[in-house]
Structure formats: structure tokens, C-alpha cells
Write a structure and sequence with these properties.
The chain has one helix at about 215-220; strands spanning about 5-10, 15, 30, 35-40, 45, 50, 60, 65, 95-100, 105, 110, 120, 125, 130-135, 150, 155, 160-165, 170, 175, 185, 195, 225, 230-234. The chain has about 230 residues and is an all-beta fold. The strands form five sheets. Strands 3-4-5-6-7-8 form a six-stranded antiparallel sheet, with no helix packed on it. It has a six-stranded antiparallel sheet with strand order 9-10-11-12-13-14, with no helix packed on it. The protein has a six-stranded antiparallel sheet with strand order 15-16-17-18-19-20, with no helix packed on it.
């Protein structure tokens, strides 16, 4: 919740007190109703140009910092870095459809709701913090690779892909990856050699393929290579 009463949602949008959604500026910042500006990283730019940091420190126009205790930071001070929920880019795949309630349905059947939770096809809910709530209200236990067994017999992978009982993987954009590495695209055609699977940034999931561990998507596909940006070349 922002100082002016606005609420930053896990999907990155800003909801005003009157229930409407604010429009982001070109740089990803939002103008708040109290005359301040919410920056993409969670900093707040005050009306006088000072920058208020999440820990309460204030960065002055000349680059000096006033610490929360009122003292001036020593020369060379670097403010701590934060990884705040609801901030940072959310990248949804092509083919995502916005529903009447503001939810967004991904091509693989998952639904990103306005509160940042992700509804699975089996009725389970992926929370923004990464945990999975099963339809009966209990928390699922992740496998060592970060995947979750869903109640319909499928497996939810760390990057948002869904592995079916036959070994095929349904990616967030609706592509189907077969155990032999071949890929059926959403338009029904077979991907050519060298096809690059897009990298996603979904709330509650790792970006692109799983970082580290035995659950990386490229390790499940023969001949696949993970690129520097997190996408996967087949």
C-alpha cells in the first residue's frame, strides 16, 4: 500500500483509492495522488525532487543521503538493494487474453488474477511468494527441482510450464514440447530447428527456465540450449 492509499498489485498495476487503475508513464513510474511519483523500483520521488528509499533514507538532488536516523551518510555510501513484491516487470506470453474481471488467461490455461495469484487448470492457486495452495486449501510440498504435482495428474514446472502424464510440456504461450525435443507451436505447426522459446516473467515463478537445480527446462529437452536472456534455443 502506498502513502497516498493506492495499492500496487502483484501483477505490477497500481490501483487508486477510487478503484480505478492508474496509467503507467513511459518509464514505468506512476503519478500518485499526493503529488509524489512511484518509481519502478519502489522508490518514491517527492515533490521537491528528493528520492525516498524503501528503508526511509532520502537521496538529495546533489547525491547525498540522509539516513533514517537523520544523519548524513558518509562519502561513497550505497543504499541497500531491494527485491520488492509487486515491483519489476511482468512479462506475459503472446496470446494472453484479458477477462472482464481484470484477470488474464494465458494460452496454457493458467489465469493471472488481479491480486497476483495464478489459478491453475486443476483449481490450485500459485501465490506470488511461490507457494502452491491445493483445491482443498492445503499447501503443496514442492519437489526437489521446485516443481509441484497438481491434482489432475500433471506437474507444474518452476517456469510456468505444465508437464502432462505423457511427458509433453505445455508452455505458457501454448506451445507443446514433446519428449523427443520437437515443438508444436500454438498455430498447429511444428517448430523449425533453432526455434527459441520465449522467456517469461510470471508472478510466483522463476523467469524463463529454472535457475539451477535439476529442474531446468532445457535439461528436459534433448539438444536444447539456454541462452543468456533465459530463453531456450531448440
Amino acid at each position: 500500500k502506498m502513502p497516498d492509499g493506492s495499492v500496487k498489485l502483484p501483477d505490477g498495476r497500481l490501483k487508486r483509492q477510487d478503484g480505478t487503475f492508474a496509467e503507467a508513464r513511459a518509464d514505468g513510474s506512476y503519478a500518485l495522488s499526493d503529488g509524489t511519483v512511484l518509481l519502478p523500483n519502489g522508490d518514491i520521488k517527492l515533490a521537491n525532487g528528493d528520492i525516498l528509499k524503501p528503508d526511509g533514507a532520502v537521496q538529495k538532488a546533489d547525491g547525498t543521503f540522509l539516513l533514517p536516523d537523520g544523519s548524513v551518510a558518509p562519502l561513497g555510501y550505497r543504499p541497500p538493494e531491494y527485491n520488492l513484491p509487486c515491483f519489476g516487470a511482468v512479462t506475459l506470453p503472446s496470446g494472453t487474453v484479458r477477462l472482464a474481471d481484470g484477470s488474464q488467461k494465458l494460452p496454457n490455461g493458467m489465469i493471472l488474477r488481479p491480486d497476483g495469484t495464478m489459478l491453475m487448470p486443476d483449481g490450485s492457486v500459485k501465490l506470488p511468494d511461490g507457494r502452491l495452495v491445493l483445491p482443498d486449501g492445503t499447501f503443496a510440498k514442492p519437489r526437489p527441482d521446485g516443481a509441484y504435482a497438481l491434482t489432475d495428474g500433471t506437474v507444474l514446472l518452476p517456469d510456468g510450464g505444465i508437464q502432462r502424464a505423457d511427458g509433453t510440456i505445455l508452455t505458457p504461450d501454448g506451445s507443446v514440447i514433446h519428449p523427443d525435443g520437437s515443438v508444436l507451436l500454438p498455430d498447429g505447426t511444428t517448430a523449425k530447428a533453432g526455434h527459441v522459446l520465449p522467456s517469461y516473467a510470471l508472478p510466483g515463478f522463476t523467469k524463463g527456465a529454472r535457475e539451477g537445480g535439476v529442474g531446468e527446462l532445457h535439461e528436459r529437452i534433448p539438444g536444447a540450449v539456454k541462452l543468456e536472456d533465459g530463453s531456450i534455443s531448440l
